[in-house]
Amino acid sequence: MKKDIIMFLVLCATSFGVATGLSSCSSDSQTEDNWNNISQNFENMKGAYEGTAIMNDNSNHQTLNFTIDQQANVTVKNFPIELVLQKVYPSDYQSIQGEMEGYSYTAAIDSVGVPSVSALNWKAKDLDVTFNYKKDGTSHAMTLTLATTGYYDVTRSLLSLRIDVIDLIVDKQDMTRFLPITFMVDAAGKK
User: Fold this and answer.
1) Alpha-carbon span 85 to 93, nearest angstrom
2) Residue 137 φ/ψ region, left for φ over 0, alpha for ψ in the -120 to 50 degree band, beta for the rest
3) What are phi and psi of 5, to 5 degrees?
4) 154 and 162 in contact (C-beta within 8 Å)?
5) Closest by CA position to 142, among listed 171, 120, 115, 175
6) Using an 8 Å Cβ cutoff, are 161 and 153 in contact?
7) What is the DSSP-derived secondary structure letter of residue 90?
C-alpha cells in the first residue's frame, strides 16, 4: 500500500512536470504575433488628428491639432498657451502681447505600453518650452515643462491626448502655485 501511494505521487509529479513543460513551448509564436500586432497598431496610429482640448477645471475648450509622425514624434500644432497665461494673469490677461496663435511643440514618443490587444498607451519625453511675451511694456519669458501622453483605441482608430504642465517658471521665478494645468483631448479622429 505504501508502494502504491509513492507510485501515485511520482506519477502525479511526472504528469505535472510534463504538462507545464510542454505548454510553455507554444508561446514563442504567440509572442512574435503579439509584437507584430503592436508594431502594426503603432503604424496605424500615425497621422494627423483634431480634437477639442478641455482644461482640467473644465473652464476652457479649444480645438487642438496634433500629429504622430513616421519618426514617432508627437507635434502639437496649436498649444493653448493663452489659456496658461490666463491662469497666471487672471485679472489682466488682456494686457499681454505676444504671438499666441499657432504655438507648437514637438516631443519624441519615449515609451509604449499595451493595456489590451485593442489599445496602445504612450508617453513622450518631458519637454521644456519657452514662450516670450510682453506685459505692460516689459518682456517676460515663461518656461513650461510639458508631459504628453496618449491612448490609442485600435478598434475605433481614435487617439486621446493628455498634456500636463508639470513645471512653470516665469522670469526665473517658480510659478507652480498655478498648477495643475492639464489639457485633455478625448477620442480625436484622424483628419
Assistant:
1) 7
2) left
3) -65, -45
4) no
5) 171
6) no
7) S
How many angstroms separate the first and last alpha carbons of the chain? Answer: 76
The reported pTM is: 0.79
Q: For residues 97 and 22, which has the higher predicted lDDT (pLDDT)? A: 97
Asked if 127 and 150 touch (Cβ cutoff 8 Å), the reply is: no
Encode pLDDT of 29-59 as tens digits.
555 655 677 889 999 999 999 999 998 877 7
Q: What are phi and psi of 95, to 5 degrees?
A: -85, 0
What CA–CA distance (Å, rounded) separates 95 from 89?
Answer: 9
User: What is the DSSP-derived secondary structure letter of residue 85?
Assistant: H
Secondary structure (3-state) at 58: coil
In angstroms and rounded to an integer, the radius of gyration of the C-alpha atoms of the chain is: 26
What amino acid is encoded at 161 in this protein? L
Residue 148 — φ and ψ, nearest 5°?
Answer: -115, 125
Residue 45: exposure state from Cβ atoms within 10 A (0-12, 13-18, ≥19): buried
Q: What are the CA-CA distances from residue 179 to residues 48, 142, 159, 182 (Å)?
A: 29, 14, 25, 8
Interatomic CA distance for residues 146 and 128, integer angstroms:
6
Report the alpha-carbon angle 61-63-66, nearest 5: 130
